[in-house]
Amino acid sequence: MLISLGIFISCTEEYDEPNFEIQSNNISNTDLGNNVSISGQIKDASNARITLEAPLMQSKGKNIELASDTLDAEGRFALDASIPGLGYYILKIYGVKVDSVELTLTPQDNITLLTHKDSIHESITTEGVIWSQDLEDYQTIRAKENPIELSNFAAQRMKATPASPFNIVLSNHIMESQDQWNEERIQIFGSVAEAFYKMDPKSEATQNFVRNFELMQTYMLNNGFYEAPDFESSTIDGRTISLSDLRGKYVLIDFWASWCGPCRKENPKIVALYNKYKKKKFTILSVSLDEDMTNWKAAIEQDGLSWPYHVSDLKGWNSAVVPLYRIEGIPFTVLVNPKGRIIGINLRGRDLEERMQNIFNF
Questions:
Q1: In Å, how far are 14, 141, 201, 349 from 173, measured between CA atoms?
Q2: Across the strands, what pairs with 283?
Q3: Which are the contacts of 250, defined by CB distance < 8 A and separation ≥ 6?
Q4: DSSP states of 132-168
């Protein structure tokens, strides 16, 4: 599996705002043989030119025109084209003005469209693909120019049918405003990415979904959208403390162990960080994956880990925190804000120092 739908991923690059990307294939032609057909009627649009274009496939900076036709006296047309796989395409009608219909195609699609030149953006009938009703509803809702209604429609349809190719179009609208950036909608996007990967892993559309889903997760993880899973564990002197006991402070959860060479090498930096910010509502919760109390305690003393919060269930990799935080290696850190929400994953060294400086405006 290429992607993981869990929220805990290892990342050090930070994003102040979403930065979704669209990749383009620079190709001059396709030689796959015609594998899609689009036909139909656009009433009262006789003699207009109609084309099928591929925005994500370009030649010399321009969209590739995959097929074209001229509507007959009754507005009928037929287009046959070759496409490399699941993707985003645009049907353009060149009349007095240029109208367009967004399409998502896969090889072997055979589509029939019926509309009127004056109502292309409000009313269209489609047959031949599983997303026919989605396109018809999309045209109607988009014509209302209500972004929130369109966004809710996109989320509902993407959740109900994650494998629908038309989700390529709907994905542009699922999070129209900042308050729609939430875990549920991110996971809807992730479900579509996973479904597309199973359906056509090599297509550009699939790769865009996977990349953008990973960017979404990174953005969410670095900007307080997720609450850090609470847990409790035992201190060296036998007391029990939990992460939630430290609410009101910035907390660096540092997963480490006495036997972990990279962890011990990182400890002087952690100590310096603590000493610099300990008076600024900042503390460290060190969670050890040790199994031996003596070694754990000795390492704390030897490395000068002077903060009061050291816990371990002394179960090593069988510790309950490992699956809870999906830890695949140590050292591993999670930065939590005073409300208990995650604002950084696996920050170390310079990345961690820069984040702390931004928080406390040094």
A1: 24, 12, 23, 38
A2: 251
A3: 277, 280, 281, 282, 283, 335, 336, 337, 338, 359
A4: HHHHHHHHHHHTTT-HHHHHHHHHHHHHH-TT-TTHH
119 falls in which pLDDT band (50, 70, 90)? confident
Q: How far apart are CA 221 and CA 228, in angstroms?
A: 10
In a 3-state reduction of DSSP, which class is residue 35?
A: coil
Nearest by Cα to 339 from 227, 264, 245, 235? 227
Distance CA 286, CA 330 (A): 12
Residues in Cβ contact with 325 at an 8 Å cutoff, skipping those fewer than 6 apart:
8, 229, 253, 255, 332, 334
pLDDT of residue 362: 57
| Contacts for 265 with CB less than 8 Å, ≥ 6 apart | none
Cβ contact 246:285 at 8 Å: yes
What pLDDT is stored for residue 30 in this prediction?
A: 43
DSSP H helical ranges for the chain: 132-142, 147-160, 167-170, 183-199, 204-221, 261-277, 293-302, 321-324, 349-360
Q: What is the DSSP letter of 340?
A: S
Residue 310's nearest CA partner among 327, 331, 288 is 288
At residue 4 the predicted structure's pLDDT band, cuts being 50, 70 and 90, is very low
315: region left, alpha or beta (phi > 0 left; psi from -120 to 50 alpha): alpha
CA–CA gap between residue 7 and residue 221 (Å, rounded): 8
* Cα distance between residue 262 and residue 37, in whole Å: 58
Q: Which of 136, 103, 109 is nearest to 121 (CA)?
A: 136
Residue 187's pLDDT is: 87
Which distant-in-sequence residues (6+ apart) come within 8 Å of 228 by Cβ? Answer: 243, 253, 334, 336, 340, 341, 342
Domains of the chain (ranges, CATH numbers): 25-129 (2.60.40.1120), 232-360 (3.40.30.10)
Sorting pLDDT into bands at 50, 70 and 90, what band is 120? confident
361 vs 201, which has greater pLDDT? 201
